[in-house]
Amino acid sequence: MSEIRSKAREPLSVVRVQRATMQEDVYRQAKELILNGDLAPGQSITIQWLADAFGVSAMPVREAILRLTAEKALTVVAGRSLGIPHLTRERLADLTRTRLEIEGLAVSWAAPNLQPATLARLDELVEEMDNIKPNKEARKIYLRANRALHFEIYQASGSETLFGIIETLWLQVSPYFNLLQERGNFVVSNKHHRILVDALRSGDRDGAVRAVQADIGDAADILETIL
């Protein structure tokens, strides 16, 4: 129990929310913690801890937790503590098959829509991931930049429906990206990112799709050995 409490006190990046949009903001902020890998497998939090972090009452946090539980992004791990659901090999395989198709489709749709400013932003993110210093913050920085790069591209698909499906898939798998750093996947993954961005810049739609699918597949292969 003392270990759970100590983990719950670890600093997370949150923003105090405004009353007018409280319920949606709490949900969105909690969702961001998961999508960015700030809440890792094995780490636990409580409703009260989140309420204190966001500066709100427990009620909007409970509502956010209900939504995230329904989306299979959170689960009760012990007593009142919440955490990332256990990921089985079978579930990983199912998510991977779906991601290969859905995220490949998003890249294909995004390819003709990417503007020079977005491509420049993607270059910056690839460079940022290449230049991350090996310290205790490296994993957090990489995971945020990785998510930003993928979602910049998926947003350019122009489909809110497709983007929403991808968000739901990432809610279920992205916390496990925390486990990839020690296996060297971050370096390999960023090579795929560079190929992906170069293909998008040159108009090679098929090459871009192959690059994002290789990125997804390599990460899944490593996660399977861990699980």
Automatic annotation (TrEMBL):
The record's listing under Pfam families reads: FCD, GntR
- The domain of life is Bacteria
Stored SUPFAM superfamilies: GntR ligand-binding domain-like, Winged helix' DNA-binding domain
Q: Does the keyword Membrane apply?
A: no
Cite the InterPro entries for this sequence: GntR_C, TF_FadR/GntR_C, Tscrpt_reg_HTH_GntR, WH-like_DNA-bd_sf, WH_DNA-bd_sf
Q: Which UniProt keywords apply?
A: DNA-binding, Transcription, Transcription regulation
What PROSITE patterns does this protein's entry cite? HTH_GNTR
State if Cell inner membrane is listed as a keyword.
no
In this protein, which residues make up the domain named HTH gntR-type? 20-87
Q: What is this protein called?
A: GntR family transcriptional regulator
Tell me which species this is from. Labrys neptuniae
